[in-house]
Write a structure and sequence with these properties.
Blueprint: E1 6-7, H1 13-22, H2 28-38, H3 53-62, E2 63-64, E3 69-75, E4 81-86, E5 92-99, E6 104-107, E7 111-112, E8 130-131, H4 134-152, E9 158-161, H5 171-182, E10 194-198, H6 202-210, E11 216-220, H7 226-232, H8 241-255, E12 259-263, H9 273-285, E13 288-293, H10 308-320, E14 325-328, E15 351-354
Parallel strand pairs: 1-2, 6-9, 9-10, 10-11, 11-12, 12-13, 13-14
Antiparallel strand pairs: 3-4, 3-15, 4-5, 5-6, 7-8
Length: about 350
């Protein structure tokens, strides 16, 4: 009867070293394997060329490497790349590589589907199948780093956890992935270049602060009025704005970084003077900046973006109150790769490459 092999990337560096010692081999071999797995992103034991054939055979006997594959790749007319990422169990998530003149940003998924119910997000219509493991999250970053070098002649510069899923509902694995991404023996990216975006889970925001994380925090806010937020983000009934505000104040007291509020303005939902003033008041209480985001329509919602005049009213009110505000236009909308559009709908738009 065939025994189930363990995924080698579930082992720490110390556990890899202990494995070699237990087999009467030098422990430093464990460090070499760790480097192949996490710094060089190798998915095949035979590519670990500084190990002998016997050592590689030993690893194959005991372990496997459960890695992702980019099943379909789509390219937008603006250069954005959307990947359909097939996992070892044939489930699929999407990741997006967004190029600008000076940087390339990886938008990473953390769950298959989503646990929450935001009415404006296509991913929310998908059933949450499972959390991604730390290595599956890490693999998305490695794949997009390779794409960035291939298509844009520069390494990945930034990472945002704004893809499919709520990162704070998969806390352990997301932080495990970030640890590997920032590890000097792995990808060695600066945590200052990483932003975690959450819909706002107060308890977990407090935990992040207490854990003294080094990356940035963005909150998908969309309204600073509880009754409005509950309509567009029904789960917010469990997480009142006052609790969220207290958690963010705790975050700032511990981490000493501004929070970014992500904010879409919709016609007839949050386009009144009261909505603008509520946001200004909140931003005065919490050290923050506002990122106004262009709304990207989805099949399951009839919501419409507010008029340019309303967007300008938001910008003027925030600016007059010395609150930093930017307006972010969509990227990759023609391939359904823009914010809120990730829903595992692979179509014929753009260039597709299977098994990339």
């Amino acid at each position: 009867m065939e025994t189930t092999k363990k995924d080698i990337r579930a082992l720490s560096k110390e556990e890899l070293q202990d494995f070699f010692k237990a087999n009467d081999l030098p422990s430093f071999r464990g460090g070499q394997v760790y480097q192949w797995l996490w710094q060089k992103g190798v998915h095949d034991f035979d590519l670990m060329t500084n190990l002998s054939l016997e050592h590689r055979a030993l690893l194959k006997t005991h372990f496997e490497i459960k890695h992702i594959n980019i099943d379909v790749q789509q390219r937008s007319k603006d250069g954005t790349i959307k990947n359909a990422v097939k996992l070892h169990d044939n489930l699929v998530v999407e990741s997006v590589l967004i190029p600008t003149a000076k940087r390339t940003t990886a938008c990473v998924s953390s769950q298959v589907g989503c646990s929450l119910d935001c009415t404006f997000c296509a991913t929310a219509a998908l059933k949450r199948m499972r959390n991604l493991n730390a290595d599956e999250i890490y693999d998305q970053v490695v794949a997009m780093d390779q794409q960035s070098k291939l298509y844009f002649q520069r390494p990945l510069s930034n990472i945002v956890f704004m893809g499919m899923g709520e990162p704070l509902m998969n806390y352990k694995n997301v932080l495990g992935a970030i640890q590997k991404i920032t590890d000097t023996e792995a990808l060695a990216m600066s945590p200052k270049r990483i932003t975690l975006s959450t819909s706002g889970i107060p308890k977990m925001i407090r935990k992040m602060a207490d854990d003294q994380v080094k990356f940035g925090l963005a909150v998908s806010l969309h309204s600073a009025r509880q009754e409005v937020r509950e309509k567009i983000m029904p789960f917010a009934t469990k997480f009142p704005l006052q609790e969220l505000k207290d958690a963010l104040m705790h975050w700032h007291s511990k981490i000493k970084k501004q929070i970014t509020f992500e904010y879409v303005v919709w016609e007839g939902i949050n386009d009144q003077k009261e909505d603008i003033q509520s946001l200004v008041t909140l931003c005065k209480q919490i050290p923050s900046k506002v990122n106004l985001i262009q709304y990207n329509p989805i099949d399951t919602a009839s919501m419409k973006q507010a008029s340019p005049e309303v967007i300008e009213a938001y910008i003027q009110a925030l600016t007059q109150n010395r609150i930093k505000v930017t307006y972010r236009r969509s990227r990759g909308e023609d391939i359904a790769a823009a914010c809120g559009q990730l829903a595992n709908k692979i179509d014929a738009i753009g260039k597709e490459v299977r098994n990339a």
